Structures are given as C-alpha cells and as structure tokens.
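Retro notes (design track)

What went well: tokenization of the new backbones is finally stable.
What didn't: we kept losing track of which sequence belonged to which structure.
Fix going forward: every design gets posted as structure first, then sequence, in one message. First example under the new rule, 472 residues:
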C-alpha cells in the first residue's frame, strides 16, 4: 500500500508540488534531537511546532531527584518520570566531540558553568539551552504540552491531539503534513528476564530510578549490566554498600572475582536463577544472599501516542521497518524518527538525520521509491540475521558503524562528513575508559586531538558550516 501525498493525487515521492509555506510539521519532544530538528526544518522554510511535556527544553538532560512509585518502572499506572539521570552523572564522551557541528560544546567563562572536559549533566542541559537561545528555537516550542495521540487522517495528513498541563481538560486537535518523532528512548525500562525473579523476596530497582547511593548503605547489592552507567553506579554504590556483585552477559577485559582496588566488589558471570530464600545463583555455580537487585539493563523504545495502522511496530526493541533508521517506507516522508541509534555520539548524528529529513520535506532532496526503501530494509535485516545479531540490537551502531552511517547521511545532505579528529577522539576515549574506568574523565593523552578540534571550531563558527549545507 502506498498512501497519497498530502495535497496531491500522485504517489511519486520525488514530486511534491505542495507550496513550502503551507507545509506544517510537528516535532514530538524538545530534547537534543527535537531542538536540532526544529532548527533544520525551519532553515528549510517549513512551519514547525515542537511539543514538549516538561516545563523546559532539554529532554533526558533535565535532572530531577524524583523517582517513580514502581522502582522497576514496569507498572502501567505509575506516574512516569522522564529523566534517567543520577545526581553524580558526568558525560562519558569529551565535550569536543559531543556538540553540534556549528555550535561547539566549549567551556564557558562563567563561574556558574562546569568547565571540565567531561562535564556533569547540568552543563549539557545549559549547552542545549544556549543552543535554543542562539537559534531562536524557544518560540517554536510548546512547553507543558503532552501529546496524547498522533494518527493518520484522510489525505495522508496527521492529526496530533495534545493537552496543555492545567489548561485543557480535553485534548486539542491539530492537523500536520508531517511528524518527526524525537521523544527519546531512556524512559521505559527493560529488565532482565531471570527464572524466579517474580518470587525473589528482596528489593528490585531499575537504574532509571537510581539517583544517589545512600539508600544502599550497608546492603548487599547485585547489579546487572556492563554499560557505562552500570560501571559508574557500581563504583558509587561500593562506597556505601556492604558488598557489590556485578553480573553481566559480556565484559570487556573483565576478570571474574574480587575487583582490583575494592574490598567489597566482585565480578560474576550472568545470573542463572534467583530463589525464594533470597539467594542469587550465577552461571558458574556460585551463589550469594543479597538484599537488592539493581537492573542496569537499558531501555525499550516506546511510542504510546503513535498510531500508524501497523505500518510501524516495535518488536523485541526493533522499531521498523525503517529506512536508514529514520523513514518508514510506506509512510515516508511524512513520518520520521530522529535519535533511535545507540552506542553513538548522539548530537552530531541527530543533526545529520534532521538535515536529511528537512531536505526531503522541503523538496531539496528526494527519497528512493517505497519498494527500493523496503528492499534496503529487508536486506539490512537479513544481514543481521546472517551475522547472528539479535533483533534487539538492530539500532546498535557501536564501533565504526556510526561513522559509516554518518558519512552516508552527510553525502546525501551535501554536508561534510565526520572529522577525523572526532572519530579518533571517540576511539581514544573508549580505549582510555577501559584502561582507566575510574579516572578516564580526568586523565587522557589525546591533547593533540583537542587542539585539532578547537582549530576546526574556529573555522566552523566563522564560516557557517551548517548553513553551507543548504546551498549545495
């Protein structure tokens, strides 16, 4: 099935006669992805409305000490807390490679700001607010406005039903030509499926609801996971807990047993089962009696507001089918997603994804046919299956995959690809993080890359590199 293009009777994607001034685009979410998407859409001459449920922009970078009533984050009736930040969180990437291309994330000469190369979460939020001010994005954003439903209507347009907090008892209906989904994927927890877990008598919590270590004082804690946040949280908890036992399917250069530098931290293979007597049994046959299980096991993609008549589904954390992780072939270009890939440098990728979307919606760029896009998606899925990659890793772009993807996007947008220093800085940081997990944020050897970055920053800001993409 191919849906008709708004305002036309043709189904040829490359021919979009609708006047740009009348093309109205809804952006769902005002985090980093939504903010840069709004900028790129407006740069292409499109009309933009950004819907944001919180009282400020920033998305996942808005910290709150609040946690959910259900520590595991599974209850469908819980009051959802959007942020997953813990109080001590610092970035695990250096600020030089994190920023948008033409708005570098450099330290500010301001006593109220965090000048560190790996700053705390508040500094990232301040950067996003600086970006919002610099490009006048605030006027496009409706704060405290919850999106209740996004659905197809006649003419292949989209009806967005939203409700302003404390103002609208019922939802307000609006019609848009296109919708870009930028709602993030760090709100709906995934938990480990382990035999006996429902009857285990101790406390369970997902890292989504972790803020500070104090509640774990004198406890025996089993932490599941090996992500960057899992490493941070385990080290922080070890300062107050009686014992910390880390279990995960995979470890990089991990050595089981007591961990160097700690008297109370052990590394284990994955949990085999848990018992009603409070014991936790690992796959090597060992077991312990624990008080708490802390799930640092990631998140699920969730779009509770989105109705696509089954053209877009989430299956084992695969959002699809999506052409290049962005466009559902049947609904392209009128529905798109920004920010699904993970294990990436996020902000620069968001920028390239949104440039492509904006260029397509403004008629400057064209997409392949629906059939060609679907064949590309099917070939990609087949390659994952052949390589034995689980479906839930569909959007994982760890390693060099993200740079190949970015290069493809940049070529199709007529923009420069990732700089060599940015790639090397990413790899250098990864290597340093494995060698110095407790101090990599404060000790490094890639000073030459920092110098290269700052040389480029001067060129970008003086030459308007991001604007230059539009004229190519």
């Amino acid at each position: 099935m191919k849906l008709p293009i708004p305002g036309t009777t043709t189904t040829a994607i490359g021919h979009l006669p609708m006047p740009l001034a009348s093309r109205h685009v809804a952006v769902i979410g005002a985090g980093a992805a939504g903010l840069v998407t709004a900028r790129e859409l407006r740069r292409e001459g499109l009309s933009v409305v950004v819907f944001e449920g919180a009282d400020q922009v920033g998305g996942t970078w808005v910290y709150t000490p609040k946690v959910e009533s259900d520590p595991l984050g599974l209850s469908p009736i819980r009051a959802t807390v959007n942020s997953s930040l813990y109080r001590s969180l610092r970035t695990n990437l250096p600020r030089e490679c994190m920023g948008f291309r033409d708005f570098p994330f450099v330290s500010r000469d301001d006593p109220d700001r965090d000048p560190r190369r790996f700053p705390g979460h508040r500094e990232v939020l301040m950067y996003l607010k600086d970006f919002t001010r610099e490009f006048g994005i605030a006027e496009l954003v409706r704060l405290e406005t919850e999106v209740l439903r996004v659905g197809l209507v006649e003419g292949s347009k989209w009806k967005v039903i939203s409700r302003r907090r404390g103002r609208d008892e019922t939802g307000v209906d609006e019609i848009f030509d296109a919708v870009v989904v930028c709602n993030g994927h760090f709100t709906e927890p995934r938990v480990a499926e382990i035999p006996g877990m429902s009857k285990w008598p101790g406390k369970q919590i997902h890292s989504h609801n972790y803020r500070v270590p104090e509640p774990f004082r004198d406890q025996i804690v089993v932490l599941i996971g090996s992500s960057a946040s899992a490493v941070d949280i385990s080290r922080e908890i070890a300062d107050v807990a009686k014992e910390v036992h880390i279990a995960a399917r995979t470890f990089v250069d991990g050595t089981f047993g007591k961990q160097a530098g700690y008297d109370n931290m052990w590394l284990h293979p994955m949990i085999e089962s848990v018992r009603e007597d409070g014991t936790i049994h690992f796959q090597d046959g060992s077991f312990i009696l624990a008080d708490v299980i802390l799930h640092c096991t990631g998140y699920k993609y969730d779009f509770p507001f989105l109705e696509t008549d089954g053209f877009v589904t989430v299956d084992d954390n695969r959002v699809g089918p999506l052409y290049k992780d962005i466009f559902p072939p049947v609904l392209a270009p009128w529905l798109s997603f920004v920010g699904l890939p993970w294990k990436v440098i996020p902000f620069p990728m968001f920028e390239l994804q949104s440039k492509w979307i904006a260029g397509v919606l403004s008629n400057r760029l064209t997409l392949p046919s629906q059939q060609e896009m679907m064949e590309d998606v099917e070939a990609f899925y087949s390659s994952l299956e052949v390589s034995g990659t689980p479906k839930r890793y569909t959007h994982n772009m760890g390693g060099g995959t993200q740079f190949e993807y970015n290069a493809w996007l940049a070529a199709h947008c007529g923009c420069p690809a990732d700089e060599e220093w940015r790639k090397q800085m990413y790899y250098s940081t990864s290597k340093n993080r494995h060698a110095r997990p407790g101090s990599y944020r404060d000790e490094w050897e890639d000073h030459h890359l920092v110098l290269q970055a700052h040389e480029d920053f001067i060129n970008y800001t003086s030459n308007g590199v991001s604007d230059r993409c539009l004229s190519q």
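Added context from the reviewer: The longest strand covers residues 145-153.
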